[in-house]
Write a structure and sequence with these properties.
alpha+beta
């Protein structure tokens, strides 16, 4: 009984101390008890200072909501920031192929994707040679960010085609300058992947590589407007 009384006295003293000083750690609403003088919450609960604009809970500890013993940490879900920025590091580089942009005739263009040997060893591509095609994510590093537009306009500036927004086309002038391409895997030599039909220029930074699998193809019939068929009719045709 003396232990219970003593613990209650410590709670009251701690609350009074915070009210007088006007600062100090505050327990998250709904979390467990706080050990006197330690600033550590029971059950793994978090303790944080009450900053500007925060309302301090003036109720005594015995009147605040409690979490059951063993209920685990008291966590506040983190909300994603609308201004979040993400850092991507190249995993490799395209070597060879074309060194200037050409709109069509990418079939048969060969190149090598050389993975970064300082980050990867051959184990990173083990089993990849069993696949015939790859999906490659790369950066349109030659695109000037200042020239990126998102307003509707005809693809390739062709006035016979309807204006469409940036997300209704495959052009390189995109907000994050990301390109996604499927290509043939011709062979492998350590961390060198020899490919064909990759529509990325020489020295292009590669951000990710995946094997292409038929099961990722759409199950339902694919539909697209006529102008897009005209746009792509020679894209993967062999260069004569």
């Amino acid at each position: 009984m003396d232990f219970c009384v003593r613990r209650a006295e410590l709670r009251v003293a701690l609350v009074q101390r915070h009210r007088v000083v006007g600062r100090g750690p505050q327990l998250e609403s709904g979390c467990g008890d706080m050990h006197a003088e330690s600033g550590v919450a029971d059950h793994g609960s978090t303790v944080r200072d009450a900053g500007p604009g925060r309302t301090r809970d003036s109720r005594p500890f015995h009147a605040r909501p409690r979490r059951p013993i063993g209920a685990g940490p008291c966590k506040t879900p983190a909300m994603p920031s609308e201004t979040s920025q993400y850092i991507l590091h190249r995993i490799g580089t395209v070597l060879g192929g074309r060194d200037e942009w050409v709109e069509d005739n990418w079939y048969g263009v060969t190149a090598t994707i050389r993975l970064d040997a300082s980050r990867f060893d051959p184990g990173a591509v083990q089993g990849l040679d069993a696949f015939s095609h790859l999906e490659v994510v790369f950066l349109f590093d030659r695109v000037d960010p200042a020239k990126i537009r998102t307003d509707p306009r005809p693809s390739r500036g062709n006035p016979q085609w309807p204006p469409v927004g940036v997300f209704a086309g495959h052009g390189p002038f995109r907000p994050n300058r990301l390109g996604v391409s499927r290509c043939r895997l011709l062979g492998m030599d350590g961390l060198d992947l020899h490919v064909a039909d990759l529509d990325a220029l020489d020295r292009t930074p590669v951000l990710d590589i995946k094997p292409y699998m038929r099961e990722f193809e759409p199950i339902d019939p694919v539909s697209q407007p006529g102008w897009s068929r005209e746009l792509m009719q020679d894209y993967y045709r062999a260069d004569r």
